[in-house]
Design brief:
Number of helices: 5
Shape: globular
Distance between the termini: 14 Å
CATH architecture: 3-Layer(aba) Sandwich
Structural class: alpha/beta
GO molecular function, one term: protein-N(PI)-phosphohistidine-sugar phosphotransferase activity
Helix content: 40-55%
Largest sheet: 5 strands, mixed
Protein name: PTS sugar transporter subunit IIA
CATH superfamily: Mannitol-specific EII, Chain A
Strand content: 15-25%
Keywords: Phosphoprotein, Phosphotransferase system, Sugar transport, Transferase, Transport
Pfam families: PTS_EIIA_2
InterPro entries: PTrfase/Anion_transptr, PTS_EIIA_type-2_dom, PTS_IIA_fruc, PTS_SugarTrans_NitroReg
Number of strands: 5
Length: 153
């Protein structure tokens, strides 16, 4: 059986030194890249889906990590993307710390809800591991970051 979901995340889905300075810029970047990577068709629609989800409850976690996510008809195949920010971003988080890393999860509307929730819960569990967070927050190796996440999904 295939372990991990390597099609979801590869090194070219990891964006280190991302210049975004606001949550809005983060969502726009995620949507734009998802389209340019060929995983999504409609960036504005995707931004709307990400923002709608955020309005239901912040996706900010702890240790400077957020997991913005959306299920949208604009998404053609599931995508996981990592952004690491040059400047910490103001985001509502559980420990009141700004966000320095975002793991975006984009899922097609047609996908069953269950695998989507399972991915999210696996990510949430992985974020409880300090080793996992350390790689996300400090590694400058996109390949290693992608592999680290892939192993947990």
């Amino acid at each position: 059986m295939h372990s991990g979901m390597s099609d979801f995340i590869t090194a070219d889905h990891v964006f280190l030194h991302n210049p975004a300075t606001t949550q809005e810029e983060v969502m726009e970047f995620i949507a734009r890249e998802a389209v340019s990577l060929g995983y999504a068709t409609d960036a504005p629609l995707l931004v709307q889906a990400l923002n709608t989800r955020e309005a239901e409850g912040s996706t900010g976690m702890v240790s400077g990590i957020a997991i913005p996510h959306a299920k949208s008809s604009a998404v053609q195949k599931p995508l996981v993307m990592v952004l690491r920010f040059t400047h910490p971003i103001d985001w509502e988080t559980m420990d009141k710390q700004p966000v320095t890393c975002a793991i975006a999860l984009l899922i097609p509307d047609s996908s069953a809800g269950e695998p989507y929730l399972r991915l999210l819960s696996k990510l949430a569990v992985a974020l409880m591991s300090s080793d996992f967070c350390e790689v996300l927050l400090t590694s400058d190796d996109a390949e290693k970051i992608a592999d680290t996440i892939d192993e947990r999904l």
